[in-house]
Amino acid sequence: VELQESGPGLVKPSQTLSLACTVSGGSITTNYYYWNWIRQCPGKGLEWIGIISYRGNTYYNPTLESRTSISRDTSNNQFSLQLMSVRPEDTAVYYCAAGLVPFGWGPGTQVTVSS
Prior knowledge:
This protein is an all-beta fold. The protein is built from no helices and 11 strands. The chain is globular and about 40 Å long.
């Protein structure tokens, strides 16, 4: 399975960050497959943002849950991330990844939050 992130590289503070992950080589509705969003802020480790299951159930990192929404588009085999009310601390490389224990990763996309 291959994953590819897409979305704007620059977002202004207080706006919504929106990213999509296109999956190829497998269906996002395949039984028991899970699809993650993960980020790495400058100088920090990986931070798990949330996950959507093959059934469309979502689970979020409690520290980000109030600002996060993950959804899916089964017709285009994509899943998406929305992070609302962004601030400069949300600047990071954002990754999508497959699996409950991620085994397949997109290359990552840099998102900078700045006015």
